[in-house]
Design brief:
The protein is of the alpha/beta class and about 270 residues long. Helix content is about 45%, strand content about 15%. It has twelve helices and nine strands. The protein binds ligand LUIYFFEK. Belongs to the enoyl-CoA hydratase/isomerase family.
């Protein structure tokens, strides 16, 4: 491990920080890719984590692909078309799949510019809150490439086809207030209060029964690729299981007794 992704954990909330601030947290770096993927797998395994926050160190959230490596044809950008294709598969595409597969609620606390694959990384999270300094740009065509990181799949799902097309065809940066108006983010805060706001949101999520949180997320994820019929079937099956849990009994008792529930994940 190289500390290109910092991880802290307290009270059931994990905070993951992209940590190459001098390069604006690019996600072409092989260590960064490995560490993001390993962290996402850990979130799935460690049931003491109930909610996670993803943010960037320094001025930017992430500047996406390393342009200097593209210019110099280094790393995944070196070699012929087959080599580049394999580089995408072994790199940024693993990040997209790993982040989309995270089972706990994941909040992107977008502290500054999120460009290209950095923008799409925020979109694969469940909730985005942004600092006033955040900027979102789906600017692949501006770099003479196309989205190879799943952006063409996730962006229309988050902002609708028309706004996705506008962002992807113009490559224009979208500021935080426009992102709020478009529903791309749910809150805009001052830079100083971004992490506190993310933590407050994470705590409100984490006080709910953890298994039910994971299953709710799984149902919503499945909903993006399933029919209503399929989702009703799946939710009936999950519901059969959660009705048997101690946390369900505790939640009902706590509501009736007008007290805070204490949930164990059982
Ligand atoms: C808006 C910015 C992101 C941040 O602006 P600012 O805070 O003013 O910082 P700068 O002064 O511009 O940059 C500081 C140093 O970091 C270097 N840097 C920044 N971004 C990159 C980058 N993408 N690649 C390489 N280096 C970068 C910058 O050169 C400075 O270093 P020096 O002092 O040595 O020069 C702004 O930086 C910006 O607009 N950056 C470009 C964003 C961009 O267009 N990114 C590419 C998007 S396409 C993409 O993401 C594609 C892929 C493809 C394949 C795999 C994986 C990922 O993505």
């Amino acid at each position: 491990m190289t500390d290109k992704l910092l991880i802290t954990q307290a009270d059931g909330i994990a905070t993951l920080t992209l940590n190459m601030p001098e390069l604006r947290n690019p996600i072409t770096d092989a260590d960064m890719v490995d560490e993001i993927c390993a962290a996402m797998e850990w979130l799935n395994r460690d049931h003491s984590v109930r909610c996670a926050i993803l943010t960037g160190a320094g001025k930017a959230f992430s500047s996406g692909g390393n342009l200097k490596h593209m210019r110099d044809k280094e790393g995944i950008f070196g070699g012929d078309a087959i080599t580049v294709r394999n580089g995408y598969r072994a790199g940024i595409q693993r990040v997209a799949k790993a982040v989309w597969s995270v089972e706990v609620p994941l909040i992107a606390a977008v502290n500054g510019p999120a460009y290209g694959a950095g923008c799409d990384l925020t979109l694969f999270c469940d909730i985005r809150i942004a600092s006033e300094t955040a900027v979102f740009a789906e600017n692949f065509v501006n770099v003479g490439i196309i989205s190879g990181d799943g952006g063409a799949w996730i962006l229309p799902r988050q902002v609708g086809l028309s706004r996705a097309a506008e962002m992807a065809f113009t490559a224009d940066p979208i500021d935080a207030q426009t992102a709020l108006a478009w529903g791309l983010v749910s809150q805009v805060t001052s830079p100083d209060t971004l992490l506190d706001t993310a933590m407050d949101l994470a705590r409100r999520i984490a006080r709910n029964p953890p298994r039910q949180l994971r299953l709710t997320k799984r149902l919503m994820r499945e909903g993006t690729v399933s029919s209503l019929e399929q989702i009703l079937e799946l939710s009936a099956a999950y519901q059969g299981a959660v009705h048997q849990t101690a946390d369900h009994e505790e939640a009902v008792a706590a509501l009736l007794e007008r007290r805070e529930g204490k949930f164990t994940g059982t």
